């Protein structure tokens, strides 16, 4: 078996309320880029939220990372997208709509190259939809199915699924739509893949075989047939598979 | 063109907070069943929520309609499901998960028979997922993609899509996940189908070519490229296509 050289940040959200995009991750990113002398980053904007163009989204990320003195290139500008992933020193997949992202990645046949790049040690940052694709499938996304991908399968560089923007039930709510926890329980009536609910501000710091929960919150763990549990920050969650 | 004999109730939710299932619709249902001498109802439990069996779900609906003296049969008990739909006097598709429902309807080749039954005048009640399938596609569901249907297309007995359990943005929320309105706007970056956001308690009463909004709330109308608008109760929304 090939060595597992994963080096990843898998974050619930790109942006915390009242902060600038990626602001809460800048220190961690700076240390990664400095230690590894990374000078350029390949950005995958395919989930693009709210109808902005891929170029506009890439520009926004370039601005967010300006203080780190790193060149941000969008994959949409590349002639050969597979080679772009193979040659990248660092890759960032941003948030938006997970269906849109997964459709594009399958249409361009990029899911497997992405998986291989991550396993061979290319630094990977995912936020929101970009974190959902680290799981085995995109079937625990909160997003609307505004496009139909050929498959719900994702990279599987984590041995479980992510629920990004995990939201606790709102106390006293009279709304009859399902809570997030109910939705994930329903996922488990048809699927046995464990699910990690990452609250906004939480992220996984993955190095090799370690998958450490970081940030101010505990994370909620859902497994088929058992009651959900909470995992505290600084715990290695790699047992979850 | 064949006559349009639709006779439908398309409801945002089966159950209002603090009420019993279907309680707020019983008067309207009683008048339909009495006027048309309907004595039996075919229930489609395929969206089944929370892992209950199809039989348990059917039993629950039988209990909810007990006061109307109507026999409720679940489609899962039928030898020939297409004939069951063709021969039904009334059909009710309940809520749960829209992906699960749509997968089953496509796998059993029931989408077209359902459409034909509705157009030829079979009374149809839909709640939540059962209302989503009245639109052109299921692409404005709020549900998690816990199963993968072969197609997102639905019956198209309405000329637009439904967003059931429509939820207004929560004022002062610091959660960074998308609001319902943002999600529907994103749907419109890839699709031109209008969307009717039905708040809980709202329903459409469809008779022939008329599609009247009923219940205590206005409904929110989303069209590609224009700002959302509100439609007041008792308005015919059939212009929306």
What would you note in describing this structure?
The structure is a homodimer of 241-residue chains. Chain A is of the alpha/beta class and 241 residues long. In chain A, strand 2, helix 2 and strand 3 form a beta-alpha-beta unit. In chain A, the strands form two sheets. In chain A, strands 3-2-4-5-1-8-9 form a seven-stranded mixed sheet, with helices on both faces. In chain A, strands 6-7-10-11 form a four-stranded mixed sheet. Chain A is globular and about 45 Å long. Helix content of chain A is 24%, strand content 21%. Chain A starts with 6 loop residues before the first strand and ends in a 10-residue tail after the last strand. Chain A has a single domain, classed as Rossmann fold (3-Layer(aba) Sandwich), CATH 3.40.50.880. Chain A has seven helices and eleven strands. At the A-B interface, helix 7 of A face helix 7 of B.
């Amino acid at each position: 078996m090939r060595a597992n050289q994963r080096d990843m940040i898998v974050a619930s959200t790109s942006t915390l309320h009242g902060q600038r995009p990626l602001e809460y991750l800048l220190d961690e990113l700076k240390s990664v880029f400095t230690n590894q002398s990374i000078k350029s980053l390949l950005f995958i904007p395919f989930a693009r939220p709210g109808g902005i163009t891929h170029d506009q989204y890439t520009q926004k990320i370039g601005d967010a990372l300006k203080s780190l003195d790193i060149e941000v290139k969008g994959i949409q500008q590349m002639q050969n997208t597979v080679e772009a992933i193979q040659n990248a020193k660092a890759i960032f997949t941003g948030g938006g709509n997970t269906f849109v992202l997964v459709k594009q990645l399958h249409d361009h046949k990029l899911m497997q190259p992405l998986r291989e790049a991550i396993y061979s040690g290319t630094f990977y940052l995912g936020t929101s939809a970009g974190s959902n694709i680290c799981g085995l499938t995109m079937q625990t996304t909160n997003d609307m199915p505004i496009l139909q991908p050929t498959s719900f399968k994702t990279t599987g560089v984590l041995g479980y699924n992510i629920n990004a923007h995990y939201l606790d039930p709102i106390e006293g709510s009279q709304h009859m739509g399902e809570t997030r926890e109910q939705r994930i329980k329903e996922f488990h009536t048809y699927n046995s893949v464990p699910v990690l609910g990452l609250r906004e501000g939480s992220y996984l710091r993955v190095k090799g075989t370690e998958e450490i929960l970081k940030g101010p919150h505990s994370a909620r763990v859902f497994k088929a047939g058992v009651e959900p549990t909470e995992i505290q920050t600084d715990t290695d969650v790699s047992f979850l598979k």
